[in-house]
Amino acid sequence: MKLKAIFSFVLILPSFLLAQVFNSANLDIGNVSACFSSDGKLFYPPSSGPRFEVPKGSSDNASYAGHLWIGGLDFQGLLHVAAQTYRQSGSDYFQGPIMTSTNYSSAQDALWNRVWKINKSTIDSFRMDLYTNTPQIILDWPGNGNVALGQAAQLAPYKDVNNDNLYNPADGDFPCIKGDQAVYMIFNDDRNLHTESGGVKFGLEFHAMAYAFKDTLYPHLKNTVFLNYRIINRSANTFYNTYIGMWNDLEVGESSDDYVGSNVERDYYYGYNGDNMDGNGGPGSYGINPPALGVAFLKGPTANIGDGMNNDKDCLIDELGESCLLSKFAYYNNDFTVTRNPVIDTNFYTYLQGKWKDNTSIT
Q: From CA 143, how far away is CA 166, in angstroms rounded?
């Protein structure tokens, strides 16, 4: 699996029941069936166990859950944090775009409690006018926001055939996706209080597109899921000392014998089995010769010019357009010491910086 972000860290924890129900969809055109939820949660559907199933149809899963973590300071030095684990303590992320606070409602929650799943072949057939009736997914594509509610006018990406700045399939407009199949989620950290981290809101809107290929010329692509995030600051604040991380509970089949590691030079982290037998070979375990799972960062946000760092590890410092790649890798386990579960907003922020909860460096 390949994801885009700046920082990464891994968590090994047991299962928890979900407190809220968010709709979800599976990206499954290749050899992986991966679940994505409307609040941006990765690989854990609301009504069952983990879903990063590979090979597809095997009932063996290589990842348990994942989500974005973000922490940063406003100009007054106030810490803002948005982070999510299993939702057993609450939620920091909510479905749908940011809108004027008075327009948030249960009706809007229900409207945006959705993941849009579409195949490239559907779009291609629509463009060739092969359908008698336009497919519902093309009609439903969330290209337009409701500006009367305070939403941005432009949301999900689309081809605007007549350049009128409105998504209208009747004009020939169609969704723009990556890969042979994509799922699309819009979520925010603004809808409600952050009951997972206890952090102050940012006012961020997130557009996430996960996509995959069915290419048989390059078989490794069938075992790869790509994930692209667009993060939009809809608040009036500028944030400083901001860290973005991917929290990921890697469980390669049976979880009790897993290990994690990272490859700094190649900007990825990985999970693997501690020996050559995963579990006892029963349901949910890979058995003999288990696989490993890698999470590679292909591109991150553009680094600040003048930070004096070689963020993309290309032997050049502060070049124009330098991308932030893997900068920190950390883990924690399931208790409440200074090296374990985060509890308050500052705990999440120190982990994002590659430090333990007491602000000491991870070694």
A: 8
With tokens 């124009």, the residue in question is 320
CB 58 within 8 A of CB 221: no
107 vs 48: CA distance, rounded Å? 25
List of residues 6+ apart from 120 with CB closer than 8 A? 177, 179, 180, 181, 182
CA distance 311 to 174: 36
Please give the C-alpha separations between residue 83 and each of 23, 105, 126, 297, in angstroms, as whole numbers: 19, 23, 39, 19
* 170 DSSP assignment: G
Burial class (CB within 10 angstroms; exposed 0-12, middle 13-18, buried 19+) of 265: exposed
- In single-letter form, the type of residue at position 125 comes to S
Q: Which two tokens stand for residue 77?
A: 């030095």
Strands 268-273 and 258-263: antiparallel
Q: Is 237 exposed, middle or buried (0-12, 13-18, 19+ CB in 10 A)?
A: middle
SS3 content of the chain, % helix, strand, coil (to 5): 10, 30, 55
Place of tokens 């229900």: 110
Q: Whole-angstrom Cα distance, residue 77 to residue 71?
A: 12
Would you write out the chain's pLDDT as a tens digit for each of its 363 residues? 333 333 333 333 333 333 458 899 999 999 999 999 999 999 987 666 678 999 999 999 999 999 999 999 999 999 999 999 988 889 999 999 999 999 999 999 999 999 999 999 999 999 999 999 999 999 999 999 999 999 999 999 999 999 999 999 999 999 999 999 999 999 999 999 999 999 999 999 999 999 999 987 888 899 999 999 999 999 999 999 999 999 999 999 998 889 999 998 899 999 999 999 998 877 889 999 999 999 999 998 888 888 898 888 888 998 888 888 998 999 998 888 889 999 999 999 999 999 999 999 988
Q: Which residues pair with 211 in a beta bridge?
A: 182, 226
CB atoms within 10 A of CB 146: 15
| DSSP β-bridge partners for residue 245 | 7, 69
And the tokens for 37? 């939820």
Q: What value, to the nearest 5°, has the Cα angle with vertex 122 and ends 118 and 128? A: 150
Rounded CA-CA distance 296/301 in Å is 15
Angle at 353 between CA 350 and CA 357, to 5 degrees: 20
